[in-house]
Amino acid sequence: MTLEDYLYQNAQRYSSKVAVVCGDQSLTYAQLWQEVERRSHDFRPHEVVCFRSSQDIDFLVTYMAVHLAGGVSAPLEHGMPDALFEEVCGRLREASDGIADILYTTGTTGQSKGVMVSHRALIADAENLIAGQGFSHDLVFVVNGPLNHIGSLSKIWPCIILGATILIIEGMKDLNAFFHALDYSHSSLLTPHSSKLKFATFFVPATIRMILQFAPDKLASYADKLDFIESGAAPLPQADMLRLCELLPNTRLYNTYASTETGIIATYNYNNKIPLLSRRGEGWSDLPLSNCLGRPMPHSRVLITPEGLIACQGDTLMSGYVGDPELTATVLRDNTIFTSDVGTIDEEGMLHLSGRASDVINVGGFKVSPIEVEEVAMSSPLVSDCICISASHPVTGHALKLLIVTPPGQTLDKRTLARFLADRLEPYKVPMLYEQVDTIARTYNGKLDRKHYQ
User: Fold this and answer.
1) Residue 449 pLDDT more than 90?
2) Is 285's pLDDT higher than 60?
3) Is 360 exposed, middle or buried (0-12, 13-18, 19+ CB in 10 A)?
4) Highest mean pLDDT out of 23-37, 268-282, 342-356
5) Percent of the chain scored above 70 by pLDDT?
6) I want to staple 364 with a disulfide (CB 3.0 to 4.6 A). Which of 26, 204, 396, 432 is the partner?
7) What are residue 280's phi and psi, to 5 degrees?
8) What SS3 string covers the chain?
């Protein structure tokens, strides 16, 4: 079955249930199917349809209508310059049988890679999320991120399959808008067994940090409504994980390993682990929770190469990079995606991520993962945000430099921070250089933009 088969099925089963909400607009499952079926006549089989991403119901209708017509959806950045938009559209004429989407992995540069996602992979990703995170029919999922990227788009898929409700908002710049979304209610969503709705959402780590800084009490006030929160796209500092567990003790909190190329691979509910340790009187600080990504989900397998890199197998893998078989062959071989992520699998079968091979900094012959340094620095009250980079040094060739954003109204105390790090890291991992900055450069999906500092 395709996603649209499930939509048709749910239009019969749950015709009057609200399927999607955005602002003051909403469509039931019957209405959503009618709109998708009507719009599908605008498209042709095998046609690649480029359209700008938007945070509204029309995006969802267009996206599924293209599929229903037998075409391929290619949602592009909303702010992509017109000339580049036309150039990309000109390159994407037709695609192979079985392809559902072409998703671009980076921003609006000409070097971004178009990843072909099959209908089979789409359904496998959805089923992985259903099994791994407990998506359910009575869930309301708040989509706050751009729908042309897999982080948010992939949450649409299990909701449609299960007949859940999708609530779309325009990003997270207005935190009040997000909390207002959690106040949503509709009679079609309530059951005789429950008088309140349960919500879930996906956040990038930068958004979690923003909420913890500016609205932690507000988040805690919705603790009884939040069924689960997933984070991904970048490492989540362990200090932030602990704080979320304190604010949302009964909410499932997932750390997920996924990418456009691999699909949704593994997930880990760290809110199970930390409270358990607290009840036992054990400490959490020595556990590598932030880099634990759990066990592979039903449609996925993970292995570690002799070089220590993560490789993924299963039904969620991409079909390749559009129009570039040579580039595809560099990462996809023998039905296996070979990533640049350094990782390990522990004795319990849990996947742990150490960082990207290209990010490792060589300091005097010692290899340092900047993520480890940033993880410890972020646990200091002196640091609001940071990034560890390589800087030139006349003796060692390279030295670690930590760029720091301090909490509002504070000035960086370099000596105190260096002592804090020295108490928690091996000597060669303690940065030699420190600089206070106003902001840390990040990519569109909240990842630290390391290339910005090269």
Assistant:
1) no
2) no
3) middle
4) 23-37
5) 92
6) 396
7) -85, -10
8) CCHHHHHHHHHHHCCCCEEEEECCEEEEHHHHHHHHHHHHCCCCCCEEEEEECCCCHHHHHHHHHHHHCCCEEEEECCCCCHHHHHHHHHHCCECCCCEEEEEECCCCCCCCCEEEEEHHHHHHHHHHHHHHHCCCCCEEEEECCCCCCHHHHHHHHHHHHHCCEEEECCCCCCHHHHHHHCCCCCHHHCECCECCCEEEEEECHHHHHHHHHHCHHHHHCCCCCEEEEEECCCCCCHHHHHHHHHHCCCCEEEEEEEECCCEEEEEEECCCHHHHHHHHCCCCCCCCHHHEEEEECCCEEEEECCCCEEEEEECCCCCEECCCHHHHHHHEECCEEEEEEEEEECCCCCEEEEEEHHHCEEECCEEECHHHHHHHHHCCCCCCEEEEEEEEECCCEEEEEEEEECCCCCCCCHHHHHHHHHCCCCHHHCCCEEEECCCCCECCCCCECHHHHC
Give the per-residue pLDDT at 80.
85
Q: Given CA atoms 328, 330, 331, 334 in this order, what sign does their dihedral have?
A: positive
Q: b/e string for 55-92 if b means 16 or more Cβ within 10 A? A: bbbebbbbbbbbbbbebbbbbbbeebeeeebeebeeeb
Asked if pLDDT for residue 194 goes beyond 50, the answer is: yes
pLDDT at 191 > cutoff 80: no
pLDDT band for 377, please (50, 70, 90 cuts). very high
Q: Tell me the range of 166-180, 274-288, 383-397 where mean pLDDT is highest.
A: 166-180
250 burial (CB, 10 Å; 0-12 / 13-18 / 19+) is exposed
Between CA 221 and CA 250 the distance in angstroms is: 13
Weakest-pLDDT range from 255-264, 342-351, 388-397:
388-397
